[in-house]
Amino acid sequence: MKARRHPSRTGNAGFQSLAEFVNAVEKSGILKERGIGSPEGLLPPSFTRVLWAPDVLGLEKLSQFSNTPAIPSAGDEVEMQNSLAQFQRDLLEQRDFIGYMSTFPSDALCEHLLLVVATGRMTPKEYWPLVRATWERAEVIAPNLAGWKKLLQARRPRRELMMTVKERLYLAALPNEFLVYRGCLMSTGSEGISWTLSKRKAEFFARYSLGQRSASVVDTEFLVGKPAVIRGSCKKRDVIAYLNGRKHQEILILPSKVHRP
Questions:
Q1: CB 164 within 8 A of CB 171
Q2: CA dist., res. 154 & res. 151, Å (int)
Q3: C-alpha radius of gyration, the chain, whole number
């Protein structure tokens, strides 16, 4: 996909440090436009190697090199790490937990969320929206399934705050028992906690499990088996949450609570 250019907003100059990049991006207004919690959310996971924003976010490459990635020196990498660490500390002091979590790559989200939850006292209004926002950024759940179960089953009040008002009303209107579907790899996917009300969406995720998503899985044991759509029924009282922010009609529920024919 070809990136849209914003020469008037970001300029054509390269950045010598992460601090310079953060300052320029904050002034550009692109964060608000893209709904991104922090400037680091514009950086690829390998930000310590490449000093530019990813094209998929619609920014021109922010490097003094036209085609070649900028490889910073060891000193530059230390400065970048220190700048990021300070930025993260500032976010925590401001209790911007969602912004803080946006500074981590997808495959590290669960472990960092468990850590920040264990070390910081959060209100229900902070905890449940944070869990939701982090869940929706996580690309692959299976390698951290135990951690996600712990987070979603936390004995904290007002779990409904994980959902929007519209989502709560939709869940309340569902019958006491209904069908759910899950698109996955047959060998391991039936143990997942993300299901959907839509068979069509499940079919999409069955295909997706061996496509783009597979590139995000580090442990290949989670890539064993053939794509399949699993069907089951569940009781409304057992549903952890109904999420539709990504138009997935997603039902979060423990696999033990889904009854398969």
A1: no
A2: 5
A3: 20
- 227 pLDDT above the threshold of 60: yes
∠ CA 193-182-161, nearest 5°, is: 40
- Going from the C-alpha of 34 to that of each of 25, 41, 74, the distances in angstroms are 12, 10, 32
β-pairing, 227-235 vs 194-196, is unpaired
Mean pLDDT confidence for 166-191: 88
How far apart are the C-alpha atoms of 10 and 23, rounded to whole Å? Answer: 11
DSSP string, 210-255: TTGGGGG-SSGGGG-S-EEEEEEEEEGGG--EEE-TTSS-EEE--G
Going through the chain in order, the beta strands assigned E by DSSP cover 177-185, 194-196, 227-235, 241-243, 250-252
CB atoms within 10 A of CB 181: 22
Q: Which of 251, 173, 248 is nearest to 203 (CA)?
A: 248
Q: Kindly list the domain boundaries of the chain, sorted by start residue.
A: 7-91, 159-257
Residues 18, 80: contact at Cβ < 8 Å?
Answer: yes
Global pTM reads 0.68
